[in-house]
Amino acid sequence: MEFFMALFIFPLLSFLFGIIGQILIKKIYIVVGITFLGWFIATFTIFNESFLIWVFIYSLLALLGALIAGAIQKYRKK
Question: In 1-78, at which residue ranges do the beta strands (DSSP E only) sit?
Answer without folding.
Answer: none
